[in-house]
């Protein structure tokens, strides 16, 4: 299924005869095989949600953070290689901080995502660097309102109403398409996001945690973890929905 | 040659009066036009208002070259940011850039007002005095002539004035300052920024309201050949 490079895939400075840069494609594979991350842009804000497989009972709950704050009004969720995603998040933080220092206002989402895109793209240009194996979903609430962006390993940055990346992305995107996001508040979208993540989770019995954040009117236009009670309620509803559909089978 | 007066070596002074205020729907900014070296007025109709963007202006006082350099730099960075973001710059951004340049280059003597209109905040007035302070205000005044009109501005400014009231406030303030400050005078330039755009208004020297019992300007330009019937050619 995947194109085998055979000689054209050893370096990101080599094209294949059909015009691909295999190193970038392989970096994309890193993301495709990671646990699911999704973002929803609704009427009053943006929700980010990550499925996190719990790799060991010895890990403290809530470790292995996948969602990072970039500035008060911006957050990113990382899919793919976590350390790579952390590098990109740190760069986004740098860009946001320097923009604020020079221009005196919080960095607009579309400016930040282009800068992050340029940065990620850089790593596709040189033999001595490997492309980042991470996609970041960027949630911003600036003076133009809320927006959701995704930057992939090639450096492409696109704006979305809703999107998902990782293992369960196809199933998740199908579910997202059924939602009427423009009419939904973030509070409602959190429940939907949690339901989707539970639904598309691989039923191999592995324990998993959710990390969910939002930036919306209710959070004072600041990017934060969703309140614990809302998350608990959403998980309850998600589990109930799954049981219902199980009973239907 | 008489070297006791050092006028020839002195730099031109932008002894100036600048005013700006927010009104209901936009912002009004104004400046006098006098540039002098000692007693000699080198330019009686200079333009002390520099455009930074379509609807953002910099009122300049202090050192003339310093304010020109600051204005050029802010205009450059604003244009760059406009290209990157694809949006019109905000007044706040322009003011911040002016502040950063003043603060990081303490040798500059640039006392400025950054004034304009953008779709997020409407009309805004920022004072950016020497040293790199930045303060957002409903109205401000700067330059050597401003010392004479703080009281007037305080007592006459009102929130939510109409455009006509705001422009008259600015003209009256400038007229009073020009009457008392030797380094301010000549003509008045007024710019009004609002959602419709930018409106320039020039008030001729003889149309500036007379604040004191000066000899009034003669009405209209003198007849060709001069008032004393001077013969030309």
UniProtKB/TrEMBL annotation, chain A:
It comes from the Eukaryota. The keyword Cytoplasm applies. This is Proteasome subunit alpha type-3. Coiled coil: none annotated. GO terms for cellular component: cytoplasm; nucleus; proteasome core complex, alpha-subunit complex. GO terms for biological process: ubiquitin-dependent protein catabolic process. Pfam families: Proteasome, Proteasome_A_N. It is found in: Cytoplasm; Nucleus. PANTHER family: PROTEASOME SUBUNIT ALPHA/BETA (PTHR11599). Signal peptide: none annotated. Keywords: Cytoplasm, Nucleus, Proteasome. Its main location: cytoplasm. Belongs to the peptidase T1A family. The proteasome is a multicatalytic proteinase complex which is characterized by its ability to cleave peptides with Arg, Phe, Tyr, Leu, and Glu adjacent to the leaving group at neutral or slightly basic pH. The proteasome has an ATP-dependent proteolytic activity. Residues 8-30 form the Proteasome alpha-type subunits domain. The keyword Cytoplasm applies.
Automatic annotation (TrEMBL), chain B:
The active site is at 16 (nucleophile). It is found in: Nucleus. One of its GO terms (biological process) is proteolysis involved in protein catabolic process. CDD domains: proteasome_beta_type_6. Its EC number is 3.4.25.1. One of its GO terms (molecular function) is threonine-type endopeptidase activity. It catalyses: Cleavage of peptide bonds with very broad specificity. It is an enzyme of class 3 (hydrolase). Keywords: Cytoplasm, Hydrolase, Protease, Proteasome, Threonine protease. Residues 214-233 are annotated as: Disordered. Pfam families: Proteasome. InterPro entries: Ntn_hydrolases_N, Pept_T1A_subB, Proteasome_sua/b, Proteasome_suB-type. One of its GO terms (cellular component) is proteasome core complex, beta-subunit complex. This is proteasome endopeptidase complex. It comes from Edaphochlamys debaryana.
């Amino acid at each position: 299924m995947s194109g085998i490079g055979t000689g054209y895939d050893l370096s990101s400075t080599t094209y294949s005869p059909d015009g691909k840069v295999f190193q970038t494609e392989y970096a994309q594979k890193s993301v495709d095989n990671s646990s699911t991350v999704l973002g929803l842009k609704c009427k009053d804000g943006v929700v980010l949600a990550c499925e996190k497989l719990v790799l060991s009972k010895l890990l403290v709950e809530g470790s292995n953070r996948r969602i990072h704050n970039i500035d008060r009004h911006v957050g990113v969720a990382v899919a793919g290689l976590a350390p790579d995603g952390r590098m990109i998040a740190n760069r986004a933080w740098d860009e946001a901080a320097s923009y604020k220092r020079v221009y005196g206002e919080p960095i607009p989402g579309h400016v930040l995502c282009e800068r992050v895109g340029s940065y990620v793209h850089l790593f596709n240009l040189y033999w001595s660097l490997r492309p980042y194996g991470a996609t970041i979903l960027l949630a911003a609430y600036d003076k133009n309102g809320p927006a959701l962006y995704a930057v992939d390993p090639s450096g492409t940055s696109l704006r979305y109403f809703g999107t998902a990346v990782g293992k369960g992305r196809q199933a998740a995107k199908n579910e997202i398409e059924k939602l009427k996001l423009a009419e939904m508040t973030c509070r409602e979208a959190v429940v939907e996001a949690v339901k989707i993540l539970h639904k598309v989770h691989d039923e191999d019995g592995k324990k998993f945690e959710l990390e969910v954040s939002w930036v919306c009117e209710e959070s004072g236009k600041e990017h934060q973890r969703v309140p614990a009670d809302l998350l608990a309620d959403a998980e309850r509803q998600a589990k109930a929905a799954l049981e219902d559909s199980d009973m239907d089978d | 040659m008489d070297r006791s007066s050092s006028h020839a070596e002195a730099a031109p002074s932008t002894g100036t009066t600048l005013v700006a205020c927010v009104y209901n729907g936009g912002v009004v900014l104004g400046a006098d036009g006098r540039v002098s070296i000692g007693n000699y007025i080198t330019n009686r109709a200079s333009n002390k208002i520099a455009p930074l963007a379509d609807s953002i202006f910099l009122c300049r006082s202090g050192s003339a070259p310093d304010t020109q350099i600051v204005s050029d730099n802010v205009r450059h960075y604003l244009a760059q940011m406009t290209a990157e973001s694809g949006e019109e710059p905000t007044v706040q951004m322009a003011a911040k850039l002016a502040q950063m340049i003043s603060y990081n280059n303490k040798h500059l003597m640039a006392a400025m007002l950054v004034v304009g209109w953008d779709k997020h905040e409407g009309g805004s007035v920022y004072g950016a005095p020497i040293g790199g302070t930045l303060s957002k205000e409903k109205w401000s005044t700067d330059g050597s002539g401003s010392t004479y009109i703080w009281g007037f501005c305080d007592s006459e400014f009102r929130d939510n004035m109409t455009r006509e009231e705001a422009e008259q406030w600015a003209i009256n303030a400038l007229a009073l300052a020009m009457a008392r400050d030797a380094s301010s005078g000549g003509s008045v330039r007024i710019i009004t920024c609002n959602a419709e755009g930018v409106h320039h208004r020039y008030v001729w020297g003889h149309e500036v309201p007379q604040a004191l019992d000066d000899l009034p300007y003669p009405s209209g330009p003198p007849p060709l050949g001069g008032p004393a019937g001077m013969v030309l050619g």
